[in-house]
Each structure stands twice: as C-alpha cells, then as structure tokens.
Design a protein that fits this description.
The protein has 296 residues and is mainly α. 74% of the residues lie in helices and 0% in strands. α4 crosses α8. The longest helix is centred in the first third of the chain and has 50 residues. It starts with a helix and ends in a 5-residue tail after the last helix.
C-alpha cells in the first residue's frame, strides 16, 4: 500500500520540482535582463540628472560625485542651453543631411539587392561576393583618399561629401536587403513578367510593397547613423552656419567648457529624438532584422 502511494506521489513531486526550476530560471532570466537594462540606461539617466543641476549645485559638487536626483531641479538649463548656440539652424542642417542620406541609401541599395536576388544573370554571385568583400575595408583606410577627392572637386565646406556618397550604395545594406528579397517566391516576379511587367515595374509594384519592414530597418539605421555622425561633418565642414548638431555640441563645449549642466541639457535634447524614434518603430525594426536573416 505504501509502495503504491509512493509511486502515485512521485509524478506530483516531479511536476512540482519542474515548476520550481522553471520559476527559478525565469527569475534569473529577468534579473539578468534588468541588470543589463540598468547598465545601459544608467549613463542616460546620469546625463538627464546632470542636466537638471543648478549652477550653484554644480559649483559645490565634487568632480567624482554622482548626483542622481537634483534638488531642486533646474529646468531652466534647457532653454538656456538651447539659446546658447543656434540650435534650430543646426537641427535644420542635420535633418537635411539625414533626409538625403536615407533617400540615397534606399535608392542605391534596394535596386542592386533586387538584382542580386530575384534576377538571374551570368556572374551574379561573383559580382555579389566582390561587392560584399568591400565590407572588410575599414572606413579609416579610405578617409584620406576621399578627402583628397572631394577637395579636388571643390566640395569641401559643403554638404555634398555627406549626401552624395549614400547614392552610390552600401555593401552592408545591399547584403541585408538581398537576404530579405531572397525570402520572396520567384513565382511572384515570374508571374508579373508574364503579365508584361519589366524589372523596374516588378521591383516597384511587387517587391517594394512586400519588403517594407526591411526597407524601414535600413532607413532607421541610416537615419540614426547620419543623425549621430560626427567624423564626417568634422572633416568636411568649416563654416559654423553648416554645422550639424554633433558639431554644435562640440562648439558648445569649446565656448562654455565649465557649463556641464548646459552641455548635458543640450546632449539630452539631441539624443532624445533617436530614443523616441526607436520606441515608436521598434516592432518594425526588430521584424526587419529577424526576417533579413531567414534565408542565405
């Protein structure tokens, strides 16, 4: 009798232990995620907290002291910081560069990716490997030749060196879009070709509507890269009227080197649009990243 009761209670005990292990595993999983999230979020939180410190508190604080909750919060630092340099002018310049960069990247990368994935032609794979091999070339290596070329063309101190290169394609984005395009059935393009559509018509009417997540992902990557770009404007732009927001922060630091609360306030305003953009588009962003790696 006791043996039968022990056998009957064994599955119950095993299930309880399994539930405990699952709960412990979930707890550890969430604790690790929360720890990583706090690690990545701490610098941004410190930047926001520093931007709200008053000038008197900043003068009394130790250089190594971290103030997480300023008392009182000096919200006046934000209008003071944004009026200390031509923020709206730099914002307009940055948006202009970002817009042209996104348009150029989408145009110059989507078409080659379509040709490398859904159009059959001799030597396609060899040419694609040649394009893909350019990813291994560091940008630092071509920085000086590009500067010499643009100076010879008379493009320095203009937006042209920043907005023209994206219209000539990026191997990384071509690869991403090609991986996504290869998930589309070839029967769709073949059926459209039988109906009399040309390659460009197939691309515009069939491929583009089906690949919006991938195109949105490329657009987001490009926009964030152009928005946060510092090295390109630093090399090619000398006129302060052409500065971007990244260079504007550098000029702010040069003029008001001791105004750390104002610098953090301006930095918060500059980086906030990127954070808001990611939160509103994260579903499309993640979907595009996942689907670009489904088929090789």
């Amino acid at each position: 009798m006791k043996q039968s009761e022990a056998r009957a209670s064994a599955p119950v005990t095993f299930r309880r232990r399994s539930k405990v292990r699952v709960l412990l595993g979930s707890l550890v999983y969430w604790l690790v995620l929360l720890g990583l999230a706090a690690t990545f979020f701490a610098p941004f939180l410190w930047m926001v907290a520093t931007s709200l410190i008053s000038e008197s508190q900043m003068a009394q604080a130790s250089p190594t002291e971290l103030v997480w909750i300023p008392k009182p919060m000096a919200w006046a630092n934000y209008p003071r910081a944004l009026t200390s340099f031509p923020f709206l002018l730099y914002l307009r310049n940055t948006l202009f560069i970002c817009l042209l960069t996104v348009i150029g990247t989408l145009f110059s990368c989507a078409l080659p990716a379509y040709g490398f994935s859904l159009i059959r032609w001799r030597g396609r794979d060899a040419v694609f490997l040649l394009v893909l091999s350019t990813i291994m070339l560091p940008s630092v290596v071509i920085m000086l030749p590009m500067f010499v070329l643009f100076r010879a063309l008379g493009w320095t101190n203009t937006f042209l060196p920043l907005v023209v290169p994206p219209f000539f394609g990026s191997a990384f984005y071509i690869f991403m879009l090609r991986q996504f395009f290869m998930t589309l059935p070839l029967e769709l393009s073949d059926a459209a070709r039988l109906d009399g559509c040309g390659d460009f018509s197939i691309f515009w009417r069939v491929v583009v509507p089906l690949t919006k997540p991938a195109l949105a992902t490329v657009a987001l990557f490009t926009f964030i890269g152009a928005w946060m770009d510092f090295m390109g404007p630093l090399i090619y732009l000398n006129d302060e009227r052409l500065y971007t927001l990244a260079l504007g922060l550098l000029s702010f630091l040069g003029k008001y080197s001791a105004d750390w609360s104002g610098l953090m306030a301006a930095s918060t305003v500059v980086i906030l649009p990127i954070i808001i953009l990611f939160f509103f588009t994260q579903r499309t962003f993640i979907k595009g990243i996942v689907l670009t790696g489904i088929k090789g």
